[in-house]
Amino acid sequence: MNAVGDPQRYRLSFTVGTLYLGGAPLAARLYEDLGDWLKVRESLRSENLLQARTSASLILLSRELTHRLSTLSPQEIAIVTDATVEELAQIMWVTVCRRYSFIGEFAEEVLRERFLLMQTGLTTEHFDSFVREKALWHEELANLESTTLKKLRANLFKMLREADLLTDDGVIIPTVLATRVHEQLTRRVPSDIRFFPTRETA
């Protein structure tokens, strides 16, 4: 809540990139060397390490990636530097949920809740219903243009599939968290296990 008791505005800039599974380990290793996210961003840009097609997209991609990775603890960054495919997908999904409270709430209140209720399907209509509900309290959602909303919806579902949380047919995939990821997520209160479709108590 802010000073007048209104909900904090949602960040809604996740129309750029998906989970950055290719660039994240590289950026994490740069951070371990440089110790500064601004320097990491500059290195990504100066050498086009994310292989962006234009300078404008390179700026957006490098900024978005470093913003997400900056939500991680040093221990979590260390995992990213040498993560397995499974670990990387899980931890980069967590960065999205931490960076964007809108996605974190969707993951907890819709994805995980439907799984716990044994409702295995997740469709775009569930997203639209979630938006309508949150728009009652968030003017920034109520004022979104339909084209922007479609981009947000498409990118969120693309990230869900990339994180191996949803099949192409819209079936929720139960998560078995990798050991190293599990250890880190349970250190937080509340536990960030809440962002995953699992029966483990968050």
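Next protein, fold it too.
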Amino acid sequence: MGSTGAATESSAQLSLSDVQNALRADGLDAWLLYDFRGSNPIAAEITAVNRQGGHLATRRWYYLIPAHGTPRQLVHAIEPNSLKHLPGSATRYAGRDQLESGLKMLLAGVRRVAMEYSPNCDIPYVSRVDAGTVELVRQCGVEVVSSGDLIQRFAAVWSTDTIATHHEASAKLYRVKDRAFELIGRRLRDGVTTTEYDVQQAMVGWFRDEGLVADADPNVSAGVNSGNPHYLPTASAHRPITAEQIVLLDLWGKLETPGAVFADITWMGYTGRSVPDRFAKAFGAIVAARDAAIARVQNAVRAQHEIRGFEVDRAASSVIREAGYGGQILHRTGHSLGESVHGNGVNMDDYETHDDRRLLPGTGFTIEPGVYFEDFGVRTEINMIVTADDAVVTGPLQTAFVAI
């Protein structure tokens, strides 16, 4: 599942020709990138404004990339160099009247423009432009549509080298996971008291050994804590791991190299000889849901059919509901992966949001259905990458509780 923090990508690169080709393919006149003091981190990252030393950007700026022709800029007169590193002519404004007239000039000839906007805020990760700015653009006679799939192309698609970093990180995570279960089993057999925090901190050390980094320590949830999807043990708040308990391991990490992307997995163990039927049935339901989601993605990609995030979520959640666990769903089926564990691409979500972005070749994401009760929870989490003609799972699939 990974950290709950907000995600932005730091490796996005702006290629004018690629953007213009994408705009023409999607029937758009332009992409209007806008930011005010970090309110739109996607635009700031894609334009690399945050990485321009010596140039302040404390006022509103606009950068219009047309489907044809040269980009145009609208920047404040006291910060004329905010977008100097980008191609295109710049118009300066100072007062708000000049801003509004400058925006009309910027949008001259544009009928349909993409912005970081999502109708009804269906995808809040995309909806970064405030309502007032959208109103200003619409007052210029321009239709505003979502830039969701454009963002994916230029902030979420992985290169061959980037995909290799994911595979390497994934292999390392699976080794850490195996060591954690082995540690728990050994301590239980030897009668050594152990806790969630003990195992977590051992995993932190193994992360260092493997050259993995993450934004937070991995999660170890025992017993009732497995029913809390965002539980995380700490030095002051944790529980012992004892016999006849569920143990959930959730770990995410990436290589400590520039441009590396995350892998993120969850596995379940049981500290007893026989898993109770109640636990086993719930786990069987989410395994079936996971496999249904994987099949939905693979079948669509292999047939060269478009597939969107909400459709994957529906494939998984319908299996869970048919098994009688609909009331125990607390989160979406999966999330985008990137340089942050929660990337800027499509999420497998028709539960928390309605993500209608397409699964594009070169994007990576998790499939992680789970069900949660007052006294326990179960989740299985794997990673997938879409290629031009297939979709691959990048690690082993858990089919039964690990016997600890």
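About the second fold: The chain has a mean pLDDT of 95.
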